[in-house]
Specification:
This protein is of the alpha+beta class. It has a domain at 53-131. The protein has 4 helices and 2 strands. Helix 1 (7-13) crosses helix 2 and helix 3 crosses helix 4. The radius of gyration is 17 Å and the shape is globular. The two termini are 30 Å apart.
């Protein structure tokens, strides 16, 4: 068994560009973007099970963000919380964001919820939060 990689080494080994996606083509029933002169409508959101974030990517993001919430504050700097930390996709997975070092950040649960509300709206987030989960915590 090999020893774990140092964060800097893990970052150097990761691809800098996301892999090409098999993004579905648009259909006539989709709504166009908010800009009326745009030729291409938004692709549908991804749904279903999300693939696991690769361990090397996960470790590199945690190391880069110093195991602290990296949410930018209006007055400058970052939140810096070390409580209830989570990984967050800057471009949401449902909006075709990739699980790459460049598109992930460590945030506290409060700022992760805020990011979801900004991306999907309170109505969607509240509906998701109200659904019973199949997960059990021991």
């Amino acid at each position: 068994m090999q020893p774990p990689l140092e964060p800097a080494t893990a970052l150097a080994l990761l691809p800098t560009e996301p892999p090409p996606t098999s993004r579905p083509t648009s259909t006539a029933t989709e709504t166009p973007t908010q800009e009326p002169n745009t030729a291409e409508p938004h692709p549908p959101r991804r749904t279903g099970a999300r693939e696991a974030i690769p361990d090397a990517v996960r470790r590199a993001v945690w190391a880069r963000d110093g195991e602290r919430c990296s949410w930018p504050l209006d007055g400058g700097g970052c939140c810096g919380s070390t409580h209830r930390l989570e990984l967050d996709h800057v471009v949401p997975w449902a909006e075709w964001g990739h699980s790459t070092v460049a598109n992930l950040r460590v945030v506290c649960s409060r700022h992760n919820a805020l990011a979801a509300r900004r991306a999907f709206g309170s109505r969607c987030v509240d509906r998701y939060a109200a659904e019973p989960t199949e997960r059990t915590h021991h």
